[in-house]
Write a structure and sequence with these properties.
There is one protein chain. By secondary structure, the chain is mainly α. The chain has one domain: Up-down Bundle (Four Helix Bundle (Hemerythrin (Met), subunit A)), CATH 1.20.120.580. Helices cover 76% and strands 0% of the residues. The protein contains seven helices and no strands. Helix 1 runs antiparallel to helix 3. 26% of the residues are buried.
Length: 140
């Protein structure tokens, strides 16, 4: 099967918008972030959908390239790492992002706002690197 690059490009465009907004929200100091439930909700939602976009791209590529499906959804990026589509280091970090997304979606009562803030401060670059690596493989 062939990969429709428009499918990937459209999703990467959405991801870029989410990342841009998340970068803007990084300006808030921790105390301001912790005091503002609306800001927390916005960051959580944007992180959730940004990670979901990456998962959607990964699922699409696995299906279109006829790769072996992961044993668990969180291992979707491990498949891309094994196949050389993503660097092994990024693939490993993205597995952690899926676990985080699952907490946002399913275990929302257990969300630790300081962990979310740390992720906002330190892990947005993983989403950017994902976009760069996918672009290099499929859109260049």
């Amino acid at each position: 099967m062939a990969v429709d690059t428009r499918v990937i490009a459209t999703r990467l465009q959405k991801l870029a918008g989410y990342v841009r907004h998340l970068r803007d929200l990084q300006q808030a100091p921790l105390d301001e972030y912790l005091a503002d439930e609306n800001l927390q909700a916005i960051v959580e939602r944007r992180l959730q959908v940004a990670i979901q976009v990456c998962m959607d791209i990964a699922s699409y590529l696995i299906a279109q390239l006829g790769l072996q499906s992961p044993d668990e959804p969180q291992n979707i990026f491990a498949v891309l790492g094994r196949e050389g589509i993503l660097s092994p280091e990024l693939a490993s970090r993205m597995v952690g992002m899926v676990r985080f997304r699952n907490i946002l979606v399913h275990d929302y009562l257990d969300i630790d706002s300081e962990i979310v803030y740390t992720l906002l401060a330190n892990r947005i670059s993983d989403l950017e690197q994902f976009a760069q690596e996918i672009t290099a493989k499929f859109l260049s």
